Amino acid sequence: MTSQQERTSPQVYPPPPDLAAHAVAQAELYERAGADRLAFWAEQARSLLTWETEPTQTLDWSGAPFARWFADGRLNVAVNCVDRHVEAGHGDRVAIHWEGEPGDRRTITYADLAREVKKAANALLSLGVQQGDRVALYLPMVPEAVVAMLACARIGAPHSVVFGGFSADALRSRVDDAQAVVVVTADGGYRRGAPSPLKANVDEALADRARGGGSVRKVLVVRRTGQDVAWHDERDVWWHDVVDAASEEHEAPALEAEHPLFVLYTSGTTGRPKGILHTSGGYLTQAAYTHRTVFDVRPESDVYWCAADVGWVTGHSYIVYGPLANGVTQVMYEGTPDTPTRERWWEVVERYGVTLLYTAPTTVRTFMKWGADLLEGHDLSSLRLLGSVGEPINPEAWTWYRTHVGSGRTPVVDTWWQTETGGIMISPLPGVTTTKPGSAQRALPGICTAVLDDTGVPVADGGTGYLVVTEPWPGMLRGIWGDADRYVETYWSRFPGRYFAGDGARLDEDGDVWLLGRVDDVMNVSGHRLSTAEIESALVSHPRVAEAAVVGASDDTTGQAVCAFVILRADDGSPPVGEEDTEALVAALRAHVGREIGPIAKPRQVLVVAELPKTRSGKIMRRLLRDVAEGRETGDVTTLADSSVMGSIRAGLGGSAADG
Ligand code: WTA
């Protein structure tokens, strides 16, 4: 898809001359980093961060693939994100313009943030949290989410943020894996005009100690919606009781650069999510550096808005750590873009004079569908740069974004990275790169990537293969929580000595990178990573399902959509499934997946079939199922154990597979 579209849209966009002349990142950055990569990163670490003890070491790769960066340096991440800006005289600068979905607003300066973070740090300590303990956060997009993350960072208790859209079961398994001692949550949050419950999910996750959650001693609850919540006196405490009452004085410890900062769970190719581990000094260096250079940040004048959720890595690196380390003013919005109207975003841009906007292609495609006339009545002239993240952006969406949101004048930066990479890896530099709609283009200065063929040999320009990172980088994951072997196996075994990201890519004639999507069993739905195996195991945990296969089928708005094929159990005593109750069963299975994982994982389609296509060794051939889900002729079936299976699947679906 991508390559064809690229050929029909030859338009390229040189940087606007005024931006190019004064850009934070100039072309010489590539040369400096190319000449001495480690010296370059050491310089970034020193110039962008404030260290209690400046590092003399840069990279220790002796334990490869476990990296240590700036290992003899000491710093406090929260001090870097908050206190030092106040000390530099910027206490009155707005850190966060927050807007709740119902329309309530809060303005939080850096001085306010410093005070709240210190109080929250004291509150966590009073709840018994110690350095090194894990704290789970399950919160809506409220300022307390940022405060809680920074409070954890301040006392050296790694946080594990669990996206508020995940279910009680998903929360429990993450709490258990990290052995979190405290959960910070809210009564609920607002989404699409209605309060959704969070505390109730925490209660369910921790209800039956035999099922898990046994590590949790306290639950700290922010009052957001005011909805009724059950209360466990010995376990639950209100944020407004303990944080508001806590002291505003807190001396931040200087922590080792390699002190764990957070664990963030992400979907892999098996049913069990991986806890991606990030540490302090290297991660913060890359978050601050990439935020500053890719978005051409001017902390004294920019108003930056990253529309991600703090529950995903984009929220970690580009709402919390990068922007706050750089001392920028940002907008944080709680809800959905169509509440109360489809013009909500453009009202927000206008109200705060947003200059830099960072969002996902799926949102851009949604706005395209809603129509450009919704933007017309709004003054968007403050915008000067647009960013894209999370999935490949098709040239049409890229061009629409630039034309209608960017009024045909702003650069668009398509940024490729992952939970594992910690920060942006491949992206244009807005004052340097002549952009091409649909291409992420080039590794940033200091980052080394390649595209390899099956045998591990770099492909020539024009070739297609696997995207790898060839040299360690400061923000790289330090492992998978509690599972060192899985880290080595997952990322370093396909091409020894190279980090394999799981993405396919093509190099064009100029050597620019075009991302082609995942090459493994990971799906990307609306920029969210979902694993086929995880949804399959949710489906087979339903009493009526014997077997399930899940594929990601392409979808115009969400990029990919979840399509499930299920075989029902013959032995559960239920009557055979007739026409009428298929519908009810499908609804029940979708709801079941929503309960097991979260609403984002609900399949778009569930197709009840009699058999699944398998190879002789019993591996499900998802490629063929994808053909069915996308309404295509099936490809080569010669490796199937039983070549008649595809015929019977199609016959059973009566040709209505694509709209199930
Ligand atoms: C995909 C999100 C194409 C990719 C930051 C990657 C992208 C996965 C882009 C990571 C992009 C992210 N172009 N694909 N600009 N950015 N991806 O961990 O498949 O939620 O492997 O991190 O998203 O998703 P994750």
Explain what you see:
- With 660 residues, the protein is α/β, with parallel strands linked by helices.
- It has a domain at 526-659: GMP Synthetase, Chain A, domain 3 (2-Layer Sandwich), CATH 3.30.300.
- The strands form nine sheets. The protein has a seven-stranded mixed β-sheet with strand order 5-4-17-16-18-19-20, sandwiched between helices. The chain has a five-stranded parallel β-sheet with strand order 7-6-8-11-12, with helices on both faces. It has a four-stranded antiparallel β-sheet with strand order 21-22-24-25.
- A hairpin with a 7-residue loop joins strand 14 (260-266) and strand 15 (274-279).
- Helix 6 (110-126) packs across helix 7 and helix 8 (168-178) packs across helix 9 (199-207).
- The longest helix is centred in the C-terminal third of the chain and has 18 residues, at 579-596.
- It is globular, with a radius of gyration of 25 Å.
- The model is unreliable at 1-9 and 655-660 (pLDDT under 50).
- Residues 266, 312-314, 389-392, 414-419, 440, 501-503, 515, 518, 524, 529 line the site of 5'-O-[(S)-ethoxy(hydroxy)phosphoryl]adenosine.
